[in-house]
Amino acid sequence: MIEECYRLGLTYFCIAPGSRSSPLTIAATSHPMISCIACIDERSLAFHAIGYARGCHKPAVIITSSGTAVSNLLPAVVEASQEFLPLLLLTADRPPELLDTGANQAINQVNHYGSFVRHFFSLPAPTDIISTRMVLTTVDSAVYHATSSPSGPVHINCSFREPLENTPQEWSKSCLKGLEFWVSSGQPFTTYIHSHSSFAHSNFADVLGIIQGAKQGLLLIGAVFKEDDICAALLLAKHLKWAVIADILSGLRLRKYRSSLSRSHEGILFVDHLDHSLLSDEVKQWIKPDVIVQIGSRITSKRISQMLQHCFPCSYILIDNHPSRHDPSHIITHRIHSSISQFTDWVLGSCVTTHINSKWTSFLCSINMMVDWEISFLINSENSLTEPYVAHITSEALDYGSTMCVGNSMPIRDADMYANGSSLGECTRGNDTSSTSGFPFHWIQVAGNRGASGIDGLLSTAVGFAMGHNKRVVCVIGDVSFLHDTNGLALLKQRISRKQMTVVVINNHGGAICTELQNALIKSQHEEADCVIEVESSIDANANFHSNLRKFACQAASHAFSTISRLSVLNSFSQDSVSIKICKLESFQYRIQLCAPLTTTPAGNHHSKHYREGFVLTLHLEDGSTGIGEVAPLKENLLDVKEQLQFLTHVIKGTPLYLSLPLLKGSFSNWISTNLGIPPDSLLPSVRCGLEMAILSVIAAAEGSTMLNLLHPCAPKEDCSTKSLNVKICALIDSDGTPEEVAYLAATLVEEGFTAIKLKVARRANPIEDAIVIQEIRRKIGFQVQLRADANRKWSFDQALLFGYNVIDCALQYIEEPVNDEDDIIKFCEESGLPVALDETIDNLQENPLKMLARFKHNGIVAVVIKPSFVGGFEKAALIARWERQQGKMAVVSAAFESGLALSAYVQFSCFLEMQNAELCKIMNTEPASPVAHGLGTYKWLKEDVTTKLFSISRGAVNGFMEASVFDAGQTLVNFDINQNALIQSFKAEEVHNYQLKVDVEGVTFSINVQEIGDKRNDNVIVFLHGFLGTSEDWIPTMKAMSASSRCIAFDLPGHGGSKMQVNDDMDQGPNLSIKVVADMLHKLFRILTTSKVTVVGYSMGARIALFTALRCNNMVKGAVLISGSPGLDDELWRSLKNHPQFSQIVASRMKHDDVQALAKALSDLSTGRQPSLWEDLKHTKSPILLIVGERDEKFKKIAHSMCSKLKEGKDDSVKHLHTMVKIPNSGHAVHIENPLHVIHLISEFVTRLDVLDS
Which domain of life is it from (predicted)? Predict the structure, then answer.
């Protein structure tokens, strides 16, 4: 029996001690190819076998003694039966003559498990008259029933008389008759052959017709456990283009993306938060799928199950590899008994085309994005360790080498609702199946006992799963489940060739610190030992937090639905499966005069005139709508801003606008990465702010609305009611003057109607002098006016503390940025007792702003001052404001001396935040805070404006306070009329000049295709060289960005693009395309094009040529920028580029080459193997070299480090700085495509440095 099990592939035996089963135990433990595990608790052992079967998709064999030991297997048998998990139960039994006689440990074990087993057979007690062939065919039949659909547990009851008694008589060998071929073959006695079902039935054609006719199709992926089935489900989802609801047990709920770009362009619409979206009545009533296809039987979410029931009648197709009904609501119209792979192959092979309603998918995507943002925000900004936080952070901590096992009751529901389903992660261990499947993510397998959904045996199941799956397992279970299966710890202790486990036990009766869990999880992932982590939490706190999550998710879903439903123009395009697209972007540089120097100007600067410079953007849609935005850099370099705007002018043309853009919560970041193909954070903050302003403005124009109505659909329209909406303004005072003069100015502002004043401090020699000014102001204006101070991080801790001690009785509302070290902020709050506001501290928020903000939850920090042009636009500003309100702090919108255009947008945005805050207070059942006085008092600095009408504010008609009219701000944006006198330069899309140049080199005439942009009179010439299979087109966005300051030229290298070569008749041999020949060709081209030295920029193959040219032709080369430049390529280099949202277009462009023979010649002659070694030459280079590599490009990082060392070898410090190496974040090999703005900045900076060296 044991040998036959081995031949059938059953090599894992779970053994419970007992004398009656000792023959089976001895045979199993003696077999050299079988692994055995033992446990005194049969129930734990059986659940362990379930976990093993779940992990490796083949049966484990369970051996037990007789009596209640057999009964103890029943809970696991029930679970295996319900979940179609194969098990082979070998139970020892007393012989028939001892049954019903009162014999010890003898019970009726025949059909002991009833209908819960697929097959039962009772073997007689062994004698020599029983044929061994009967025993073998019994095992073969049982295993066939266990593994055939519907798979499940099978039971062989094995009677033994006295198993340990010595049997002296000889056995007849007739029982072994006919076994010769079996003994010699090594194969099972009986081979069962599975027949494959065909999809030729007419009903299947009906199913194809239903799928093809779907307009609002929904693809549900339930419990799926095999890699092949998961791949098949993904291929089906990609082909259908339907919305995909992935259950936690599908393995697709937890996806690890290789980059943020790949996350935004995966080709599959995952709707991870439909459960909480359905909390919204509007969404629940709207979502009416016409066809539902479900893969895998079980769905965890109760709300989704209810939604499916409410959608009936509609076509509902369920595919699973068993015939059971699994239809508790009785709504399935088509039941297909098939494997997922077979069904997918059939659908894809039938060439089914789909006609899905794009408006349906756009709505679902937008609503899901908002609910996802809301859940993530609340979980990450919560102060306590909650069960949703555990689900979120545990799933986030997993890598591809791990799997997850979740307990029943709340753990699996929390994982389904709150797990982080789209985090970033790299494959670090194991075979990355997903990387070869064509999808930009890998998935994390999740297991759970959902057959009978009991809380017993969960720990034992997880240990078995780790054994069967051969990956690390993180098991999340509740405290009762853990206590219920403590015998599973005995299994955990037995390390039989399995990876380590981490058990997270949620003990909900206390509190803990969130970071401790995260650190423990990370540590457990890198240790070889098993680990048990106890997470203490409070039942009441969890109930309250779950309630808040539901409320806010409901509000987010309703808000998203309401907002996008009102976008009539965008909806009309979406209905026709066509997106409204951007026609062009124009930018105009302005220069306006100010009344006084900026407060950032050092005190005492009294020039007669002061100016503010920036850019006005105009964005045009194909329908004729126009939007405006302002880019007003204060801290950023004006040239960098120009380059980014010119880059955007090129790449933005023809890009579609999304319905979700006005929702702000990640929608702009998603749009930038997907449509512009750049990391969102690579845009300068002021540029992104202006771009977002222009996009919101153009959508509002297309809809005949205002920015406020766009952001908040419940805001009143432009009528009498909106005219009463006003935003309080805080006046701004520069402290340049005597205390009496400053106090007089403050009193004047109070008389004008201002109720809040901010004073710039830390501009005097001694902090006490600033304190005296504050004291004088208080004496002058009294305490009814809010008084703020702003130190702009100019004081040391001791200086700030000295100021604080002297103004403690002045009732400051807050002081902004009192210390120059942000690590001292909280210390200052505690020692000074003064309320503090953040400002500059939040200016550099990158991908995970909540993590940084979490450092400043201290109650002493009462406000955050948000400058949209500093933090990077309205989307980030809204996130920060939401965090502040969630923490009970003030959100103060502040200007950075922008023109009336941006100020009008900020007024509308401030009003939106106030309305949003009122909604949040209503949800949280708290009293709304008093309206905030926003920091827009910089309007008083404007002597002239970019608008024909100067921005102004006035006293409110009701309260007499100085306020900005929301209506007037909206009208300024809608009816914007640019002041032509303020414009100094305009930037429009500049055309690239394309032409051919011919040069002769070593008997070959090269006809080189040239792309050029920029002023031909400009001596600052940059030449761009592409990589293998690339063309000069690769560099067009970069060239357009840099064309204002440089003359940019790109060549199609020989054999590439439009370049051709012709061999002269007198050549005896074929043409030589060595790197030397190409460098000589470039040298001649340089001489034709310019008399000045050039800067050469090359990527990959182009970088090798650029390096050779710089070393051998330094009389014409000023400097070289080498991007991923080194010999040798392998496929790993391209993984990051494959995840780029525009990868298909990039591949298509690589196919455009006029001279294929020359291309082949270039591949041969310019290959790394034929390149002369340049390592020693690096030491002697005279031209400055900039090396650029991607942070993820490990191979080229190492090479670049070596090159940089070689370049600096033997040179003194005055020369070493000429050669630098820069790693570009979030990039692989093709850095200039993956993160072009960063590369543009580096090239521009390098060229400027070369100019300085020349001068």
Answer: Eukaryota
910-947: pLDDT as tens digits:
999 999 998 888 888 888 888 899 999 999 999 999 99
> Which runs of E-coded beta strand occur in 632-784?
726-728, 731-733, 756-760
CA pair distance 342, 353, nearest whole angstrom:
18
Q: Which of 937, 980, 997 is nearest to 962 (CA)?
A: 937
Phi-psi region for residue 110, left (φ > 0), alpha (ψ -120 to 50) or beta? beta
Provide the β-strand partners of residue 120: 155
Contacts of 927 (CB under 8 A, 6+ apart): 921
Q: Give dist(CA 220, CA 9) in Å, integer.
A: 33
Cβ contacts of 307 within 8 Å, gap of 6 or more: 274, 278, 284, 287
- pLDDT tens for 948-992 read 887 878 887 777 788 999 999 999 999 999 999 999 988 877 789
Which of 786, 850, 856 has the alpha carbon at shortest distance from 827?
856
Q: What H or E segment, with its residue span, contains residue 307?
A: helix 302-311
Q: At 315, phi and psi to the nearest 5?
A: -70, 125
d(CA 62, CA 217): 44
Tokens of 1165: 């002659």
**Residue 925 burial class via C-beta count within 10 angstroms: exposed 0-12, middle 13-18, buried 19 and up:** exposed
Active site residues: 758, 867
First to last CA, the chain: 90
Q: Are 691 and 648 in contact (CB under 8 A)?
A: yes
Is-contact 308 292, C-beta < 8 A?
yes
Cα separation, 239 vs 812, in Å, equals: 62
Retrieve residue 655's tokens: 């890009």
At 220 the three-state DSSP class reads strand
Closest CA to 231 of 344, 321, 350, 319: 344
**3-state class of 1020 per DSSP?**
coil
User: pLDDT digit string (tens) for 263-319?
Assistant: 655 678 899 999 999 999 999 999 999 999 999 888 999 999 999 999 888 999 999
